[in-house]
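Hi F.,

I've been meaning to write this up properly since the lab meeting, where we talked about keeping a consistent format for the predictions we share between groups. The idea is simple: the sequence comes first, exactly as it goes in, then the structure tokens exactly as they come out, then a line or two of notes. No screenshots and no reformatting. I'm using this chain as the first example so we have something concrete to point to.
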Amino acid sequence: MPLSRLNEQQYTAATAPYGRNLIIASAGTGKTSTIVGRIGHLLSLNIKPEEIMLLTFTNKAAQEMVERVAAYFGREIASKIDAGTFHAISYRWLKRKEGKVVLKQPRELKTLFRSVYEKRTFSHIDCATSAYGANYLYDVYSFYQNTELSTHFEEWISVRQDEHAVYAAIYADIVDEFEMLKKEYGFVNFNDLLLRMRELALENDLGYKEILIDEYQDTNALQGTLIDAMKPPSLFCVGDYDQSIYAFNGADISIIGSFETHYPDARIYTLNKNYRSTVPILSLANTVIAYNERIYPKALEVTREHAAHSPRLLIYDELFEQYHGIAQMIADSATPREEIAVIFRNNASADGIEASLRELGIACRRRGGIGFFDSKEVKALLDIYTLLVNESDMMAFIHLFDYAKGVGSAIAKELFVALQKLGHGSFLRGLYTPDPSISNPFEKRRLNHQLGLFDDFAELGSAGRFAKLGMDPNFMGNPILQHAKLTKDSAVYLHDLFTLFRQLRDIKEPKAAVQKIALSNLYGHVIEHLSHRRAMTENGAVDERAKTESQERIRRKCTVLFELSRPYKEHERFLNAMVLGSQDLTQGEGVHLLSIHASKGLEYQEVYVIDLMDGRFPNRKLMSRSGSIEEERRLFYVSVTRAKDRLFLSYAKYDKIKKTNFVPSQFVFEAGLIPKDETYAALVAKGAVEEI
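Output, unedited:
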């Protein structure tokens, strides 16, 4: 029984009475064991496993907890627990209730959003403030969906950013058309999953006796209303306000802070016995986080009693001297490579340390920044695959045309709609057997000056201009080639799309499809485009050696994707696995290079927290957007509490490339690693630091 291994605090929490329970689980205090113990307690009370919902921040965390339950109660029982992220559980429910759910990733929906945005012009508006770009407006709208529960988007953005009030009607119209197109094509994004799940929960009793929520401090307003809509008889929420670091993504620390107000009958339990770190490391963490306002009183207690190393501050004269110096320290360290982590606040920091480690032949794996599934080459291959599974996916089509010369998002959308018209709803039929009675598949856009729409009629050109390109005769007669803005390059691109999908029609196995796509002329355009751009020098020339190396790296990623496809026998299952599970897959071995957000929940014997310079960490730029010094301090707390035995903090005084001088981060002063001198006084004087 998992309860037998818990300490007194954990046991008291795990066996709490039915009702509203909040467990404040400080860093390294065994929250996972407590959650597993709670599930064991519920099962011992004869609550059925299918009456238990476990909400976690990652699917990987849910899987690990279910595996631990299975070790005590068997896999058959553990597998019946409804466990996963808010999005994963919502996706499963909607699939059961509605059948097919076409889930799209944010970057794919940005492509659709951009195609709507590009039909607008803001030039007729006399305003000193520039309008938001398409991608940023999409992010603003996503943030709105996660944080605002009642106000209309137009009103919300007018109040939140009053200098953009002049654009609010256009922004709202773009959003409205975007939502209409999503509905028309049956697309669902991650926010939609929660919104539709909330509607489902309000109308139905989902049958759960208790809902357990991990990382409760990172829930946002939308998730909070979903929890309320599910109306569980009992809640078991586990979190730590000192580790709330997702405000940029809509996380609302006031949700955990107001638990007792929201639930008047709530019980609060605290886990403060740390099993991870040594006394000096925890002392430093407690000293700095104490500068933040206390929501619930607590203090970490150390259970490890052996002799410990004090945290060390490493000071370097120059930025890259810091990276090289830390790489050399890692090379000389006796700690196993897989037990070493370098934690960074900014991606640029990771680039420098990764290059220095590679130079010394030290293997490393990187999480945070651009991962495997975020790389453009992997996205492009999966976009092609998406069209194989769902030919109605306009976004995948538009995004794929990012690699066609002379075709922007708006034109790509026109081509897709025209092909659907030629095929009476089927893009592929329009590509291969267009209706001969439709001579002009292109339509005139509507004009509305007030909403920023402009008139841009797609005139017809002659398909005969492409006669000498040697394209398939069956394709040459397609009216799609009459689009006046098609160039020879984009016509060839369309023809290569035509050729590839003709070859893919009879392929049944995912691995064969991945291989066919990777070797196709169409994907060859992607390889050429990306490798050319990545090999460009500052003067505009192309480094051919760098281009060849870039192409080899792209092909290696195709090989990785091919290996991932091997276990799957169905196209849709493989694609869904890539969409839902990509964030939990990692590559590489050796030293861990981690963004602070990626390091959450992990622990290592030896940790380096780098680039502790004012402006970089705390990151003043991000603070000015949606953060705060309190959140930056929580990020610092999370980073240092990843260390079990040895902790190194480092900063540099100068960047020779940007010719920039640095001053130490205020957290270095707050930790007592250097005295509060004139530099600290200057930070206080300009308001960068609030003196306590």
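Notes:
The chain has four domains: 2-99+192-271, 105-188, 301-363+589-685, 374-445+457-582.
The domain at 2-99+192-271 is CATH 3.40.50.300 (Rossmann fold).

If this format works for you, I'll send the rest the same way.

G.
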